[in-house]
Design goal:
This protein is of the alpha+beta class and 807 residues long. 30% of the residues lie in helices and 25% in strands. The chain has 22 helices and 28 strands. The strands form five sheets. It has an eight-stranded antiparallel beta sheet with strand order 1-2-4-3-11-12-10-9. An eight-stranded antiparallel beta sheet has the order 8-5-7-6-14-15-13-16, with helices on both faces. A hairpin with a 7-residue loop joins strand 1 (24-28) and strand 2. Helix 2 (48-58) runs antiparallel to helix 3, helix 2 (48-58) packs antiparallel against helix 8 and helix 16 (640-648) runs antiparallel to helix 17 (651-658). It is globular.
Length: 807
Amino acid sequence: MAMSYGPYVDSELESLIDRIHPPRVCIDNDSYQDCTIVKVDSANKHGILLEMVQALTDLDLVISKSYICSDGRWFMDVFHVTDQLGDKITDKNIICYIQQSICSSRRGSTQLKTSLSKEIRTNHTSMEHTTLEMTSTDQPGLLSEISAVLAELKCRVSAAVAWTHNTRAACIMHVQDDSNPGSIMDSHRADRVQAQLVTVVDAHHTNHQRWSLRLTGPTTGQTHTERRLHQLMMADKDYEETTYGTKGYETIVTIENCREKAYSVLNITSRDRPKLLFDTVCTLTDLQYVVFHATISSKGSVAFQEYYIRQKDGHTLNSEIQRQAITRCIIAAVERRVTHGLRLDIRSRNRSRLLSDVTRVFRENGLSIARVEIGTHGERVVGSFHVTDACGHNVDRGMVEVVKKEIEKLGGMVLVSSESSSNWSVDEPSSNNDEEEQRPARLSLGTLLWSQLERLSSKFHTLNSQPEKRNKSSEIIISPPTSPHRRSPSLSFRCHSSAGGTINNEATMLMPARTRLFTLRISSLLPSSSSSSLPFALPFRSSISHSAPPHHVSATKTPKISISDTAKFVRTVLFIPPGTDPEEVTDDMILPGSNIVLGPYVGDAKVKEVEFMGSSVRPKDCPKDDRPEFAMLGRSNVGKSSLINSLVRKKEVALTSKKPGKTQLINHFLVNKSWYLVDLPGYGFANAPESARMDWSSFTKGYFLNRETLVGVLLLVDASVPPKKIDLDCANWLGRNNIPMTIVFTKCDKSKNSKGQRPDENIKSFQELVKENYKIHPPWIMTSSATGLGRDELLLHMSQLRNYWDN
Ligand code: GDP
C-alpha cells in the first residue's frame, strides 16, 4: 500500500516550526541509578534522529537503550546513556555540550564552539584541509604507499580514518600542504597529487577490481567522517560480499510489513558494540528510509533494534529484492566497524611523514592494517591502528615488540592496548568469563587511558591549588581538556631530576598522573655509605596531602624476625614512603624481611572487625563509597586465603571467598569500617591450558584500571617455589599499567622445596627477574601464614599507604 509521507515538504515551514518550537533537551541523572537519561523533543524533519544520535556518539557515549517516536510532525526520543566506563554523565561541560549540540545541529548553528570555548571533533568540520577519499580492495601496504607518496609530494596527513570490511577498504584522509599548512590551494598541484595517487592505486588493482580515489577541497556542510565512510563503503558495494555474520555472532535482520499502519518493521539482533545505533541509523537515513518508531535495547552482549520505517516517498518495503538489499546493507553497516587485530595506540609529536613512517614499519614487518583512526591535536598526533598478520590472524607478541621498538625509534609512543583480537569476537568464550560474555566490548586500554587522563586532568585543579603540598622535586602540568571528548586532554609532566634536569618523555606523558605525584629517591643499602640516588615515581595512589601526618611508629615497635643473609642481600633498594628523607633512613626504620621503610604516615594497624560486603561480577558493581582498598592477587594455591585469614584473624572471612561461585568474583571485606580488603580471583590453575590461565584478566584488569579507590595491589608470590612466569607476567602487567604493587612473598617458613632452593633464594631470583623489567623496584615483604611472619609488618605497611591515600 502506498502512503504519502508528508511532514517535510516545505523547508521554510520547517524552519518556522523550528523557531516556534525550538528543540528541548532534558538531561536527567536522577531517575535511574546506572545511566543518564537524555530526552529530546523537537519539531520533526528528515535526518533529525541521525543528528541526535551523532551528537551523543561523537562524545563516545554509550547508548544502552532508546525509545524513538517521530510520527506526525513531532519528534520525541529518550536515550539511556553512560560514558565508556559505564558511569553517568555528570561533567557539566559534557551536559552543556549535549544540550547545545543537539539544539545547534537542529538550527544549523555554529555558536556551539564559541559558547563552550572548546573545540569538539574539528576533524569533522575543519576547512583547513583537502580531503582524500578512497575505496579499494583491502591490500596490505596500500595505505603505506599512499602515505609515502603524499609525503614525497610534501603533503601532510593531519587526520585519517580507514576501515576494512569484506575484502574492501575505505579511507578518508585530511591532507595539508606541508610548507603552508592548510588545504592545497593550487588546483594544478592538487591535480598533480591526485594523478600520482591514482597511479599508485591503479597499480595495485587488476582491470576487474574496482577502486575509487578523489581529492576535494574544503566545502561547507561537510559530511560527518564516519557517516561518509559508511557512504563510501556502501557505494563501493562492500555489502555484496557480506557473509551474514561474523563467526559465532550472526547479525539477524528480519523485515515484516505492518499493513494497518503501513510501516515496514525492521528487526536487527546483533552483538552489541559502541556506535551501533549510529551505524544503523546512518545507513537507514542514507538509504532514504524514515524512522517513525524505534526501540533499542541490549541484554548482556546482544543488542536488539526494532525500527518502524517507510521509504522517504512513503512506501513500505514490498518486494523481496528491496528486502534483501536493505538486509545486506544493514548487516554490512553493523559489521563494518567490527575490528580485528591488535590495537596499537600511538602518540607522537606532529611532523611530516609520520603516517608514512609508521605504516612503513607495519608493511616492512608484514602486518596488515585493518583499521586506522589518527588525528592531530595541536603539536601531538594521536592514533590507533588495528593490525593483523598478512593472513588476518593475530600478530605474535615478538612481532609486536619489534614493531613497537621501531615506532618508538621514530619518536612515537606505543601502547599495545589489548591482547584480544576483535572488539566483537570472543574466540573461546569461557564460562568463567562472565564480564566478557555479558558486556559489549566497550573498553580497550587505549580508551580507558584517555578517559583516565581526562578525569585526572579535570581533577587536577584541586591538586594544583595546593602547591605547597607538593614535593618540590616533581611538577606535573595538566591542562584541562580542550574538549569533553576523551581523546583531547592536553597533558604534560615535568619531572625534575635531583640534578635539576627535566625529564619529559612520552612514556611519562602516557602514564596516569596520580601515581606520579612525587619524585622520590631510592637509595642503595649496600654499602649504606654509597647511597646512590635515582629519581622515581612513588607507586602510590594518592589524593596528595601532607597535612596532619599520623604518628610515627618506629620499627622498634614491631616484633623482630630473623631474615637470612640472602634476604638481606636482595634488599638492594628501599621503598621510601613520602615524607621520609632518604638520607635519614636508619636500619630500624626498615621493616624486617622487606625493603619497606616506615614513614610518618604509619598509623593504627590493628584489625578490630571485618565484614563481608559482597561479591561483584563487574568492577562497576563494586562498593561505591570512597573507602581505600587493597586488592589481593595471586596464583591459585599461593596461600591467599591463608594470608587473608592470618591478616584478619577470622577463618570464615577467607572461607567466604572460597565458597563455590565466589572464587571468580571480586569479594569485598570491610575492615574496621574504614577500608576494604579485596579478594580477587586466583589465576593460573596449574592444569589449565595457557589460554585459560589469564582468563581472570578480562574483568580483573578492568578492575585495576577503573578502580579509583585502589590504594595498591598485594601481589602474592609463593616463595617456596622458583619464580613462575605467570607471576612475573602479572607483576610486569601491573608495572606497565602503573598500578601500585607490593610483592608479598608467601610460605616463607618452608625450608626447602624439592628443587633444593630455600625461600630466600627464590625471592632473590624473583627480584632479579622483576628488576629486569622495573626501573623502580616495588616494595616487597616476606610472610608466612603458618608462623605469622610478616603479618604485622604488612599491616603497618598497608596503614601507611592507606593514611597517605586518605589524607
Ligand atoms: P589459595 O588457593 O591461594 O587461597 O591458597 P590457600 O590459602 O588455600 O593455601 C594453599 C595451600 O598452601 C594450603 O595447603 C595451605 O595450607 C598452604 N599454605 C598457605 N600458606 C602457607 C604458609 O604460609 N606456609 C605453609 N607452609 N603452607 C601454607
